[in-house]
Amino acid sequence: MYSPTPDDWHEANRARWDERVPIHAASEFYDLDAFRAGKDALRDFELAEVGDVTGRSLLHLQCHIGLDTLSWARHGAARVVGLDFSEPAVDTARSLAADLGLGPDRAAFVASDVYDAAEAVPDRAYDIVYTGVGALCWLPDLDRWAEIAAALVAPGGFLYVSEFHPLADSFDDETGSTLVHDYFVRDPWVDTTPGTYADIDAPTVHNRSVEWVHPVGEVVTALAKAGLRIEFLHEHDVTLVPRYATLERHEDGYHRFPAGRPRVPLMYSLKASRPA
């Protein structure tokens, strides 16, 4: 249900994520054995849109257990830094980095709230600041996030965002065709669903979470106000999870609507640069 922001939103969300870290680390969804063996965690459109990262520094905000972060290191980034508010997630990411033979000079992880990132990360500016899917919905204040992220982009560098499209949250869960929620709502969404997207049947205790829907226009405007130049905004008709019962999983790992059905954007990506 939609409601005013609870005072304990941050503590509730962190408890939820802390509990789910070991579940995710053991899940087939993340498949850490395959990742250690070389499986890439990044999406094809992310690799194409970010481009060559060889020799560049990259900061990953809200990195969870670090698979995307470490994948950028595998693609040649000179130094990657991952930041997440969950200490168990950061511990898991550090362990994975060690398994891959990546020391802290190549891959460092910091336990910190994203709103404190400017003080928490080891460097003051990065060639690339990256935010992966499923991150922005946990933040109540997008303007503050944009200001912090923009300040961490080095001159001549850029911020890259890859996210689930907020329009997808407006449709019914069964068919994804009936509009049931207000796209422009600003109230938080309080959820108490047990389990996790990586294992829906996993027994869990900390099931309460507080999330926000941020329309794409809000994201773009916040970044522009923070002084970044929007290079592109791309919308994608695929998603990573079976958001609706009617979605079909394809061999490339994406979920899509059946052929012949009208499509809506399910993900989006954007690039915003800082002048040199």
Rg is 18 Å
Total domains, how many? 1
Q: Sheet with the most strands? A: 7 strands, mixed
Find the structural class using helix and strand composition.
alpha/beta
The chain-level mean pLDDT equals 96
CATH topology: Rossmann fold
Shape verdict: globular
Topology:
Blueprint: H1 9-25, H2 32-36, H3 44-50, E1 57-61, H4 67-74, E2 79-84, H5 87-99, E3 107-111, H6 117-120, E4 126-131, H7 142-151, E5 153-164, E6 189-191, E7 209-211, H8 216-225, E8 229-236, E9 248-249, E10 255-256, E11 267-273
Parallel strand pairs: 1-2, 1-4, 2-3, 4-5
Antiparallel strand pairs: 5-11, 6-7, 8-11, 9-10
Helix pairs in contact: 1-5, 7-8
Enzyme class: transferase
Keywords: Methyltransferase, Transferase
EC number: 2.1.1.-
Provide a descriptive summary of the structure in words:
- The structure is a single chain.
- The protein is an alpha/beta fold.
- The protein has one domain: Rossmann fold (3-Layer(aba) Sandwich), CATH 3.40.50.150.
- It is 27% helix and 21% strand.
- The protein is built from 8 helices and 11 strands.
- It has helices at 9-25, 32-36, 44-50, 67-74, 87-99, 117-120, 142-151, 216-225; strands at 57-61, 79-84, 107-111, 126-131, 153-164, 189-191, 209-211, 229-236, 248-249, 255-256, 267-273.
- The strands form 3 sheets. A 7-stranded mixed β-sheet has the order 3-2-1-4-5-11-8, sandwiched between helices. A two-stranded antiparallel sheet has the order 6-7.
- A hairpin with a 5-residue loop joins strand 9 (248-249) and strand 10.
- The longest helix is centred in the N-terminal third of the chain and has 17 residues, at 9-25.
- The chain is globular.
- This is Class I SAM-dependent methyltransferase.
